[in-house]
């Protein structure tokens, strides 16, 4: 009969560290190449071109050109549209996510909403502009139905789809679903023990949200709002297809500078793009910092 001392441990060959690492790097190679070709190199090209003239000589004229009143106005309108759509999208999206996560609604609503949000958050560009024109345009379906059956003409109130608020309303179609997708995990991270402890200590529902839930969710809420701002600030296809050149936003002005027939100053377009990169970069950096802070609370 074999004793304990007779049993010999089975030798296990050590896993090759270099082999495992090489396969790991092979897996992320497509992502690295995609980021290099479509993000890093174009950004570097824009940064260099912003400080060059048409002949390739160094100049600060393009940067100085950003102080033009038309360009400043375009930046300001873009910031206003992005802020309006981000705040409204964050507010509506938060209450939608709260309703399906913590509101006690039927369980089948959550996967339905999440599936729709995943599709709608990527629905933009010309198809989205056409959908809103066919729905809320002057001869759109909803506009005609309201006028024929209710006797109410939304355009008589001053509403215009091809305007500031019309563009902000269109952006909400993908801003709200994006908010739902990002804020839902944060709501899932609210521990039930926190609510029970607050109730045991005599806190009301309002006090729980005021002193426990909202301070925990605040970094996620603010960070996601900044992400929504950056998301709408860089949108061009939807705005161009919907409003054309009737609304002076920075993305349309950038398109006119680089590809237009009248306004063609490629290097000034690079400077415009550099300003956009700085604004969206700061927004995304703040989002990353706030998200990491929120994750520490929700672990």
TrEMBL record:
Pfam families given in the database record: BPD_transp_1
Membrane topology: Multi-pass membrane protein
ABC transmembrane type-1 domain location: 75-289
Residues passing through the membrane, by range: 23-48, 60-79, 86-109, 129-150, 162-187, 207-230, 237-258, 270-290
Principal subcellular localisation of the protein: membrane
Keyword entries, A-Z: Cell membrane, Membrane, Transmembrane, Transmembrane helix, Transport
Coiled-coil blocks: none
Localization per Swiss-Prot or TrEMBL: Cell membrane
Gene Ontology CC: one annotated term: plasma membrane
GO BP term, pick one: transmembrane transport
Superkingdom of the source species: Bacteria
Record family assignment: Belongs to the binding-protein-dependent transport system permease family. CysTW subfamily.
Protein name as it appears in the record: ABC transporter permease subunit
High-level lineage: Bacteria, Pseudomonadati, Pseudomonadota, Alphaproteobacteria, Hyphomicrobiales
